[in-house]
Amino acid sequence: MTDTPDTHTPHMQRALAACRRGIERGQSPFGACIVRIENDKPNILADTHNHVRLNTDATAHAEVMAIRDACRSAKSIHLPGATIYTTTEPCPMCFTAIHWARIDRIVYAARIEDAQRFGFNELTISNTTMKREGGARVELIADVMRDEAVALFELWQKRGGVAY
Amino acid sequence: MTDTPDTHTPHMQRALAACRRGIERGQSPFGACIVRIENDKPNILADTHNHVRLNTDATAHAEVMAIRDACRSAKSIHLPGATIYTTTEPCPMCFTAIHWARIDRIVYAARIEDAQRFGFNELTISNTTMKREGGARVELIADVMRDEAVALFELWQKRGGVAY
User: Fold this and answer.
1) What is the pTM assigned to this prediction?
2) Of the candidates A78, A93, A164, which has its C-beta nearest B96's C-beta?
3) Spatial separation of the C-alpha atoms in residues A25 and A35, rounded to whole Å
4) Contact assignment for B123 to A77 by CB distance below 8 Å
5) Of B63, B65, B88, B96, which to mutate for an interface test with A (greatest number of A Cβ within 10 Å)?
6) Residues of A with CB below 8 A from B94's CB?
7) ipTM of the complex
8) Cα separation, B2 vs B68, whole angstroms
9) Burial of A2 (0-12, 13-18, 19+ CB in 10 A)
């Protein structure tokens, strides 16, 4: 399948919709989905939002939740050929989880510095740095629908969201 | 409480015992425990091993499992004042999970390069680098009972363990 700008839009929209569902449940403004092309059709392996407060689990970021769901769905700890769409550039925890799961590609909307600007206690290491320093092979595609993701941070803030 | 060499030994022994329980269950050779001094006594908030294969979950490293358990036990996403004892230097996923959970201190036995030598697909970023590049405040104590942890990698290998 050849990538066009429109290849990513429907999947990022799905991640943004998951993010919005999370905000409606009082969760932090992060959504992710994992997609793999199987028999020429996209198979959605996971589609979820941040559950940190809901589950009282510091590790329950959207990407980690999506990887757990996708591993269960695929009955495998490795997800070769998959792409993760995430509304914010993965933090180093999520980047490394993606590496362990052997996901091929990360497509993200907002950047770590956007999350920081809204008060999240991010480690200041970009995915580009993680990839270079760590020797990861994952492909990175940045800034897909970034404005839409930032708008969801604003919605979350307007509703009284508190960063951690 | 003042640290002496013996401060860490009983807690690292607990992490090593968890690692050994994991090996006996066919899991990868990693154990962790989380301890917090409460009313002058150590409270064990979590004590577990790697569950990646058992749970079909690429994120179920010993440290992540321990943080999930400790958050649930403490009814909080933040664990200030806690120390995590882990049989191997946390990978960047686990290091960052520890940061998100606001754990104060990491005490580890084997190093990331030991895990690599036994075949694990580690990103080559040490905790020292993660701390410096990411601006983390966590305290790092290395090489506590490293030989004992490496001996458990050897036991795991002898029993036919397969790295991922």
Assistant:
1) 0.96
2) A93
3) 24
4) no
5) B96
6) 93
7) 0.96
8) 28
9) exposed
